[in-house]
From TrEMBL:
Region of interest (Disordered), residue spans: 1-35
Alphabetical list of InterPro entries matching this protein: HET, HetReg/Transcr_Mod
Organism: Apiosordaria backusii
Record's compositionally biased regions (Basic and acidic residues): 1-12
Identification of the protein by name: Heterokaryon incompatibility protein-domain-containing protein
Every Heterokaryon incompatibility domain range: 99-255
Polar residues composition-biased segments: 13-31
Matches recorded under PANTHER family: ANKYRIN REPEAT DOMAIN-CONTAINING PROTEIN 39 HOMOLOG-RELATED, HETEROKARYON INCOMPATIBILITY DOMAIN-CONTAINING PROTEIN
């Protein structure tokens, strides 16, 4: 195989074809003819479409979809020649380190463009053609694996086995080539291309600096040097790299994490993976560069229970795109070297999106022995997937959701347990559509404040509530908590304490409240409601961004307020409720549940799952009574 680093052949694969592709086409009467469609093209232009078009390429079945794979031999050629390939079958165990795995975005399904595979024409997406055009070598073949061609996408019997093997395919590759290209940009002088080239130049220099620091035994801190300042100052560089669609695709997370090494390529540019990672890992202060950190967090995700581990991956890849919405689940099964197979989810592309999501939720609950997956359930209608049972997360939705409460405000597993560590008791009825749990009612929702949106936290939660709700109702909701502020503080940070304990947390809370007085004065300058709204969306947001650092250490502890609403219960508990909570909804504690949940009674005797709740005073089992538990049928 051709080694892209050293420019030489590094070995041949077993059963590797040696014949050249043919453009022969057999007619119905058995005659062999050449059939070519030709266009006039400039000798200097990139070949954007094959001139030669023949009969369609036909796949042959794999001997074993779980152990056999197809590899693509990209034949050498210039940028002005047709793309020709040879596709052949080999055993995965015989191909270790003998191919490169391509990670890229499929792009739009239409239009397509033809290439030649084993002498037949195969239609592929424009982005894939651009990748092949730029990855092809002049005088040496290149061995690649990528799902669009190496898996027969029309064979629903083959796909599940290949999908289950994808993690091992990327682990067995010599390297993973990350293609960030855009099929519609082919001119070197295009501004986006110049920005991307500049970005890669800067990142490579950062990586080289980091490697040199490490070699000299120094602390690797490239973010403190002049090169990092250059990256911070040039938003075009940041946009060119981190707004690329590759960061939003679901499959790419698995592909880059399980690979041993990674190339990042964009129009004639190849960048060594190790230097990229070394240089950018320390640059976590930039919002866009946090996308890199999220990938690293995924790689570090590991728990004792494979179902909890799978849930962690699903949470961290929730906002990534998928052409096929079933791949929101199937696309993460290759993490952890096959460990996730123990959850029992088998890719089945004959199942509907709703069936795949429901099966995943069922398996996660069964194998994990907890209800943590319920924290991802939102009652927001999405046109992309049919509404399923309320206890099944809709993974197709990319809208803002509240962070699950099974973790604390800093993302660590919550130390308290509302059901006192009781075992999970659950089963399913009505063809798996009704989840039956054991639990009991604790309280009833009586008062609600508005939903806290993303920027409400920046503006200040107390002010937003006071400004939006009439004074009497506001005092009903938070009652005496404005006197001591202790319970109010604990509710906003969902019981998450700073290292110094309650005293340090309350001090940070008071400091944060003090900064809000300036904001209140600014808002008071606009007496007219209409003008106030315009002021908030323009001048105010600019002001808050510039003074972000002045908000103190309490801001991270407000992370679970977003997309929830303050509220009160009939027994005078102060709570953070799910956004869709309504008066008379019921607060339950389920056996095996770590946090209270809000359920809504239905006429048929079942209940609808609304979401998790923080209820100050009962988060560590204070209100849980095992003897009161009965069947709770959640539809």
């Amino acid at each position: 195989m051709y080694n892209a680093v050293h420019g030489r052949e590094s070995g041949r694969l077993r059963n590797q074809p040696s014949q050249k592709p043919t453009t022969k086409h057999t007619t119905p009467n058995g005659q062999t003819r050449h059939r070519c469609l030709r266009k006039k093209i400039s000798p200097q232009s990139d070949r954007e479409e094959n001139v030669t078009v023949t009969g369609l390429h036909q796949y042959t079945p794999l001997p074993d979809s779980a152990s056999s794979i197809r590899l693509l031999r990209l034949l050498p050629g210039s940028r002005q020649q047709d793309i020709e390939c040879m596709l052949y079958v080999t055993e995965l165990t015989a191909a270790v380190d003998q191919y490169e795995a391509l990670s890229y975005v499929w792009g739009d399904a239409l239009p397509t463009t033809p290439i030649q595979v084993n002498g037949g024409t195969l239609q592929i997406g424009l982005n894939l053609r651009t990748a092949l055009l730029n990855l092809r070598l002049i005088n040496q073949p290149r061995i690649l694996w990528f799902d669009a061609i190496c898996i027969n996408q029309q064979d629903f019997d083959e796909k599940p086995g290949q999908i289950n093997t994808m993690g091992q395919i990327y682990r067995s590759a010599l390297r993973c080539v990350v293609w960030l290209g855009n099929a519609h940009l082919s001119k070197p002088n295009d501004v986006p291309q110049r920005d991307t080239k500049k970005a890669f130049d800067v990142l490579k220099m950062l990586g080289d600096d980091a490697a040199e620091m490490k070699r000299m035994g120094k602390k690797v801190e490239p973010h403190k040097g002049d090169l990092y300042k250059k990256l911070r100052a040039d938003m075009n560089i940041e946009h060119a790299l981190f707004e690329n669609e590759w960061w939003r695709r679901g499959w790419t997370a698995q592909e880059i994490i399980v690979a041993k090494r990674a190339f990042m390529a964009w129009i004639w540019i190849l960048l060594r993976g190790p230097s990229t990672c070394s240089g950018s890992a320390s640059q976590q202060s930039r919002p866009s560069l946090k996308k890199v950190q999220r990938i690293r967090d995924l790689a570090a995700t590991t728990t004792i229970n494979p179902a909890d581990e799978l849930l962690g991956y699903l949470i961290r890849t929730r906002t990534r795109d998928a052409t096929d919405l079933r791949d929101k689940i199937f696309g993460v099964l290759g993490f952890s070297g096959g460990r996730l197979n123990d959850v029992g989810i088998v890719p089945n592309y004959r199942s509907t999106v709703g069936e795949v999501y429901q099966d995943a939720a069922t398996r996660i609950i069964t194998v994990s022995g907890n209800f943590n997956v319920l924290g991802l359930c939102t009652q927001v209608e999405t046109p992309t997937a049919p509404r399923g049972p309320s206890w099944v997360p809709d993974w197709s939705s990319q809208s803002a959701i509240a962070l699950p409460l099974v973790d604390d405000a800093l993302g660590q597993l919550r130390k308290t347990n509302a059901s006192r560590g009781s075992p999970l008791v659950s089963w399913w009825e009505e063809d798996g559509n009704v989840l039956v749990a054991q639990g009991h009612v604790v309280d009833v929702v009586s008062r609600l404040a508005p939903v806290q949106r993303q920027f409400d936290i920046i503006e200040g939660v107390p002010y937003d509530v006071e400004d939006t709700v009439d004074k009497p109702k506001f005092w009903e909701v938070i009652g005496e908590f404005l006197d001591s502020m202790d319970i109010f503080c604990q509710t906003l940070c969902t019981g998450t304490l700073m290292p110094g304990g309650r005293e340090e947390t309350e001090k940070a809370f008071q400091d944060w409240l003090a900064t809000l007085s300036t904001i209140r004065k600014l808002m008071a300058m606009k007496a007219d409601k209409k003008a106030s709204k315009a002021f908030k969306t323009a001048s105010f947001l600019g002001y808050t961004k510039k003074t972000w650092q002045s908000y103190g250490d309490f801001i991270p502890y407000l992370s679970q307020v977003k997309e929830r609403r303050l509220g009160g219960t009939a027994k005078e508990y102060l709570c953070l409720f799910p956004r869709n909570t309504e008066p008379d909804d019921q607060v339950y504690i389920l056996s095996g549940g770590r946090v209270p949940v809000v359920l809504r009674p239905r006429r048929d005797g079942t209940v609808e799952f609304i979401g998790e709740a923080y209820v100050h005073g009962i988060m560590d089992g204070e209100a849980f009574k095992p003897e009161d538990c009965t069947d709770v049928r959640i539809r």
